[in-house]
What we know:
The chain is mainly α. Helix content is 71%, strand content 4%.
Amino acid sequence: MPSSVTPSGHDAPHATLIAQAAQILYTNGETTHATTEVVGELNALFGTDYTLVPSWPQLSLLHPDGTIVRAVPTRIEGINMRRVSRIHKALHAPGGPDRAGLTAAVTQAARLPACPTWLFCLACGVGATMMSLLYGIGHVHSVALLFAASALGGLLRRVLPAGAGQATRALAAAFVAGLAGALSVHLGWSSSARLIAVCPGMMLVPGPQLLNACMDIARHRHDLAVARICEAGLTILAIAAGIIGGLALGGADLPVTARTGAIPLWLDVLAAAGAACCFPVFFSMPYRTIILAFLAGALGHGVRWLAINDLGWSAPAGALLDCLVVSLVATPICRLRHVPFAGVGFASVVALVPGVYLFRGMAGLIAFTTSAGDPAEALATMTDLTTAGFIIVAMAIGLIAPHRLIDAWMDRLDARRARGRTSG
């Protein structure tokens, strides 16, 4: 490893500012590639030649001679994409960025608060309710219980100390959902799908981390991708453990062979769009992105519904088509509005997240350890896990492939405009 040094002379404040900007971007949902590009833009602005070396525990800023001039931690405790947008806006201000304005923007971005707790809890409740409508929840009373359980879980995620870790906070919120699911069983409000327990858990899935991990794979940053996937995987396991543990403590279970109901096109589109609107709140994105998430989510899910119900496509194929549509619509708008694609992209397709399949599959695996198991349950478990795997792969391909192509095309357009301004 190169040795760590302290920069001297006029480079010292620039190194600090560049490292701070990179840390804000990287830990708040921006892709690794976009973060390194911003460092290049800052180098051009300040006349420096630093290289950013990203890794999971820290970001290292290297001098041209290979020594580390700044190292900042990259622990992700909560995503606040308003901070990312603030820095991008300063970089792409009319007339070009200036040093004083950019310095002020980075300082302001570091201080931007997350969305209010009351709004976060409301979004948790509304999002879980919309997801339950997608899966055909049938009891009016259960909707109220589901809303309350998800909102309470959101409150726990906010009040637990940041040092507890993302997985611990997700475990606590999912446990509350599991207890609510058990209560609904005893009250006779629950179907075999246990949507009151499962749908709040789907609000906890760390989507931007998974999507950015797939983007790292596409950029051949496999070490970062593995770290992101492991971190996100631990959170997903914690969610499943919380749901199953809460149900078990309340004397209920998560049936492996349960299936969800079908709903009409209009309800499918509205529920998917409604769920998409909640995730910009979770990620503290600029509120204007809610409209984009609503439209992209409605369009993508409507196309998916038609493909599955009218054309007979499978769930993974429908997910691929949905994500292709969302990526084609959202990528250029995110680029022009300087909003992280991971936030809008995941928000628009959150209804596709195979949480139901994953949680049922994990419940089935646990059942194998306590009994001989039933052949039908074994088949259902393997089917759920396989379907979940194919849906995740389809979502990654559908979101990333158009995003990469459109991004490359827009990069060429920007370079052509820059050459035109220079020659003019």
